[in-house]
Design brief:
CATH class of the largest domain: Mainly Alpha
Pfam families: MFS_1
Radius of gyration: 24 Å
Membrane topology: Multi-pass membrane protein
Keywords: Antibiotic resistance, Cell membrane, Membrane, Transmembrane, Transmembrane helix, Transport
Number of helices: 18
Number of domains: 2
Structural class: mainly alpha
Organism: Kitasatospora misakiensis
Subcellular location: Cell membrane
């Protein structure tokens, strides 16, 4: 099925330096939705003890209050991104945002653990459609260049802010009652839905039969869902158990089947050729490493501060506030910074700051102070995410055609969610193995330190890829364009070489 997408005349969004109030409103609505998506990942964590106590949930069941959202979000992002391309980004965004609001309300009202987990899964599914639809609306509304860089910087920084500030809000709301961590997003989502219906550009789709890649959707979505599920459950079942190994083998088979299907179908869910774009391929691997390392780090820090140092949930949330504040305050300035220095420079610098933040925390002991240990890492964390998170999203959609922006958005968001699930599961397993089940300070530290080494290594992998990619891009730009070797009139070859060099010097 072929789909041609255009905007109606009432959309005057293709602006350069001057943005109309309607364009600003569109961006704010999309930022609000992404903020809520990211907020929901981190906000429920601090409320878990209160939820388990009131609803009488076991530890394994309580884990799924978090994992249910990640499973729905990470498992269906790829499908969500392609659905936005095929059915219309505006339509998909509005529908999914309405489902998100309804699921939030349900989660705050239920008194049954199973229904709560179902509500969380449904919210994750809704987020899997709003996130890539929103990102692709931005990349198709703002022309590539300074305008798009500015919009993406603001948009992605809002997402990072939601993830960071979720801990702070969770600490504040849990003090009132855990249900408010579920109910608070409802009015924001409803307001965003009302304004989105008025502001988002209306799209016209011309549909024909035969475009949907059903087999690709089934195998691809099943592979991602099973991978996230396996990584989440491996801690309880054991990484070398038959159950875990069998699930991983099934993931490999599903991925192999998916690749075969996508290489043979006329209209694939994921056009494999998109990975020939080096920027897109590298950005997805970097996003996996960056998000995964941060997810594992946050988990270790939460256990360390609350279980070992005895911090309250609110004190921990306030202690992490500087990173979220730095990310939020950087939003208006990142667009010009990206225009001036480029993602090729900013990504390595941001990832270097993240590696430094994780490595500095290796100095932890049973009596570490906030100024000496926590604050330096938190400051570097804020700097790293402020630089790297917008840059990786820009790189992941750079040079991609408008009709595949939903796909590119779905890919990078999938990399972020799957990276978080997989690296977090690995860090959890390392903590358990290192501590040996002990509850003393030294036993806990024996688990935390190797887990921190692991997440630092994952972030370092992302840094190496970013540096290599930047070097490759510089080499390509430095290589002169060849002058065709055939007979020219007198002076023709020299004149052509001079014109070529003049064009290159201007660019």
């Amino acid at each position: 099925m072929t789909t041609a997408t255009t905007t109606t005349p009432d959309d005057s969004s293709h602006a350069g330096d001057h943005w109309t109030p309607r364009l600003w409103g569109t961006l704010i609505v999309l930022c609000a939705a992404l903020f809520l998506d990211a907020l929901d990942i981190s906000m429920v964590g601090i409320a878990l003890p209160s939820i388990g106590s009131e609803l009488h949930l076991s530890t394994s069941t309580l884990q799924w209050v978090v994992s249910g959202y990640v499973l729905g979000y990470g498992g269906l992002l790829l499908l969500g991104g392609r659905t936005a391309d095929l059915l219309g980004r505006r339509r998909v965004f509005l529908t999914a945002l309405g489902v998100f609001a309804a699921a939030s309300l349900l989660g705050g009202l239920v008194d049954d653990g199973g229904l709560l987990i179902a509500a969380r899964f449904l919210k994750g599914v809704a987020a899997a459609f709003t996130a890539p639809a929103g990102l692709s609306i931005i990349t198709t509304t703002f022309p590539e260049g300074p305008a798009r860089n500015r919009a993406l910087s603001i948009y992605t920084t809002c997402g990072a802010s939601g993830f960071s500030l979720g801990l702070v809000l969770s600490g504040l709301l849990t003090a009132v009652g855990w249900r408010w961590t579920f109910l608070m997003p409802v009015p924001i989502a409803l307001l965003a839905l009302i304004f989105a219906a008025r502001l988002l550009p209306r799209q016209v789709e011309e549909k024909a039969a035969g475009r949907y890649d059903v087999l690709g959707a089934i195998t691809g979505t099943s592979a991602v869902l099973l991978l996230v599920f396996t990584a989440t459950e491996a801690q309880g079942a054991g990484w070398l158990s038959l159950r875990t190994l069998g699930s991983l083998a099934a993931v490999v088979l599903l991925v192999a089947a998916f690749l075969v299907i996508e290489s043979r179908t006329a209209h694939p869910l994921v056009r494999l050729g998109i990975f020939r774009n080096g920027s897109v391929a590298r950005a997805n691997v970097i996003a996996f490493a960056m998000a995964g390392a941060y997810g594992g780090f946050q988990f270790v820090v939460t256990l360390y501060l609350q279980d070992l140092l005895g911090w309250s949930a609110l004190a921990m949330a306030l202690g992490l506030l500087p990173a979220g504040a730095m990310i939020a305050l950087s939003a208006p300035f990142m667009g010009p910074v990206v225009d001036r220095f480029g993602t090729g420079r900013l990504l390595p610098i941001g990832l270097l700051a993240l590696v430094g933040a994780f490595a500095l925390f290796l100095r932890l002991d049973a009596h570490s102070s906030y100024p000496a240990l926590v604050l330096p890492s938190i400051v570097l964390l804020g700097v790293g995410f402020a630089l790297a998170f917008p840059s990786v999203n820009i790189a992941a959609t750079d040079g991609v055609a408008d009709e595949e922006q939903g796909l590119a958005s779905g890919l990078v968001n999938t990399a972020i969610q799957v990276g978080t699930a997989v690296v977090l599961a690995g860090a959890t397993a390392i903590i358990t193995a290192g501590s040996g089940g002990g509850t003393g300070a030294e036993a806990q530290l024996d688990g935390y330190r190797p887990a921190l080494l692991f997440v630092t290594g994952v972030a370092l992998l992302g840094l190496v890829i970013a540096v290599a990619g930047a070097a490759l891009d510089r080499r390509k730009k430095a290589t002169p364009l060849p002058v065709p070797d055939y007979d020219y009139p007198s002076g023709g070859r020299e004149d052509l070489a001079e014109r070529r060099d003049g064009i290159l010097s201007k660019n």
